[in-house]
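Design review, sub-item: ligand-bound model
Attendees: FS, YL, KQ
YL presented the inputs for the S-adenosyl-L-homocysteine complex:
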Amino acid sequence: MMRATELAHLLMRRTLKSGDWALDATVGNGHDTVLLAESVGPSGRVFGFDLQATAIAATDKRVEGHSQVTLFQAGHERLSDYLPEDSQLAGIMFNLGYLPGASQEIITSADTTIAALGLALERLKVGGLLTLVLYPGHRGGDIETTAVRAFTKNLGRQFTAAQFMRFNSERPAPELLVIERTRPIFENQP
Ligand code: SAH
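KQ shared the predicted structure:
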């Protein structure tokens, strides 16, 4: 069965075009950042955030040669301080939880994730896609999952949201949420 992270990659590849702008809100080891860089090509731009220096260093190494990538060692909840004001993003990726191979104490948390999600969605252009991988089985992940699901469920009508997760798993399985901006923000009549 396809993993949540694999499906996120497939959907991003299908959505992004050469020259698009994209955001990796949790670069971690940089797998999503590279995918975004390859998808938007050298004429595009990719912004990446992570709190940990080790994650930024690992990602920096992985994206070597992709000069369209800019990395920030900062919390994604502060993305407005770093992104160009008029940035319109065609693709946004969140991969929550902890950095594989590093401390499991440094995890994303409900408050900052939801703040960042709100800010990122403001910059998502019509037809653009946001993917978010949740880990309800990780310690602390259940609280964050519940909060993010509730936030996503209550998004306005300019967005369409879908969920993918393994259905017959005994333990809570990683889950993919996909959010598309389907209408301009001002077009909110029924
Ligand atoms: N995409 C990665 C996995 C991401 S792990 C991969 O390819 O495997 C989640 C990452 O989120 C960790 O590296 C952690 O340091 C980072 N993180 C935690 N809180 C954050 C915050 N507020 N802002 C940005 N990054 C954060």
